[in-house]
Amino acid sequence: MQPTQETLDFIDLLSRNLPDLRAGATVDDLRSAISAATAVDGPDVAVVRDLSCPGPAGPVPLRHYRPVPDTIAPGIVFFHGGGFATGDLDTHDHICRIIAAGTGAAVVAVDYRLAPEHPFPAAPDDAFAATRWVAENAEELGIDAGRLAVAGDSAGGCLAAVVAQLARDAGGPAIAYQALVYPVVDWDDTAARELYPSRTGNGDSYFLTAEAMSWFGEQYIADPSDRTDVRASPIRAASLAGLPPALVLTADFDPLRDEGEAYARALAAAGVATTTVRINDGFHGILGFGAFLNSAERAETALVSALRAALADAS
């Protein structure tokens, strides 16, 4: 099976302006290119404000979205993608607006520290600190602390999975749901190539490449022994029992497809209520491009619908 021409054309549009990292382009060049590619308008929501919370190495910037002012609503802590080296509050602003408008939930986006300036475990440390702060300040944020979810795409999907595990192991905060969009869950590259055929089968020509995955791993994880740390590779946790219900969304032509689906199977085997959605004709990075691409629209609909239903049930 091959991608449709619509998808191939969109991949080409996104890819042609990305810098060649192996030819001397810098991480700042890549960040600028990603920022330009994601300059997409999202729907209006009633309140959008920047704030921050205490973190392990200083304040962590946040962005708070409220679709309806002056009400208590479910809450979603959102972690952006970008390979742990790119992405910020602005690159995923339109995605957070889509989620807030579609679910009716308050969304708090987390601008965690990026590699290589801040390698592992800076990102999960910031992500967990921010989630605890949101839970502790839920009333002020207009959030029902009993209906708090974590969500993210790609690197952010990994962080959402890790935060759910850390919260379970620490005895809180209570997480009602986790929504993982094409997450990376295993940074042991040698094992990953053997365990997940999509790492190589989809490793070229579909926007995110196997070569890019290797580069991101080099930026994020300075000590190779950390690649099997569960805060980097949540699929390697000793137990997944007791975690919150989950959505794991994957895409046909994504190198990370098979490991995301393996994590979903492992969650289900541990007794966690888990929904798996594979987006036909999808590729890594489609979330947020629903105005331009059919598969992206289906991904957004699946994510919003799952979050809305789960947080309604959590009440």
From TrEMBL:
It comes from the Bacteria. The keyword Ubl conjugation does not apply. It is an enzyme of class 3 (hydrolase). The active site is at S154. PROSITE patterns: LIPASE_GDXG_HIS, LIPASE_GDXG_SER. Its EC number is 3.1.1.-. Coiled coil: none annotated. InterPro entries: AB_hydrolase_3 (IPR013094), AB_hydrolase_fold (IPR029058), GDXG_lipolytic_enzyme (IPR050300), Lipase_GDXG_HIS_AS (IPR002168), Lipase_GDXG_put_SER_AS (IPR033140). It holds the Pfam family Abhydrolase_3. Gene3D superfamilies: alpha/beta hydrolase. Residues 76-286 form the Alpha/beta hydrolase fold-3 domain. GO terms for molecular function: hydrolase activity. Keywords: Hydrolase. Belongs to the 'GDXG' lipolytic enzyme family. This is Acetyl esterase. It comes from Nocardiopsis mwathae.
